[in-house]
Amino acid sequence: MPSYAWLVPATYVDSGTNAYERQHQERVIKHLKKKAQALGFDLIAQPILQECVS
Predict the structure, then answer these.
(1) 33 to 15, 25, 30, 46: CA distances (angstroms)
(2) Are 41 and 32 in contact (CB under 8 A)?
(3) How far apart are CA 39 and CA 52, in angstroms?
(4) Distance CA 41, CA 53 (A)
(5) Which of 7, 9, 14, 22 is the most buried (most CB within 10 A)?
């Protein structure tokens, strides 16, 4: 029996590099939080400081 994906054509939408990098970073952070919690730690997000270059 053919799969549903073969029966209904879908259009591919490329979200771009920025979207991929954002999703990857979210997955990494989620994994790190889970790992830290398993070890008894809590991760706290800190703001990223931007350097001023003159």
Answers:
(1) 26, 12, 5, 14
(2) no
(3) 37
(4) 35
(5) 22
Q: Let me know the angle formed at the C-alpha of 14 by 13 and 19, rounded to the nearest 5 degrees.
A: 120
Q: Quote the tokens at residue 38.
A: 């398993």
Does position 31 have pLDDT exceeding 90, yes or no?
Answer: yes
Tokens of 41: 């730690």
Task: For the chain, state the CA radius of gyration.
Answer: 19
Percent of the chain with pLDDT over 70: 83
Taking the C-alpha atoms of residue 27 and residue 21, their distance in angstroms, rounded to an integer, is 10
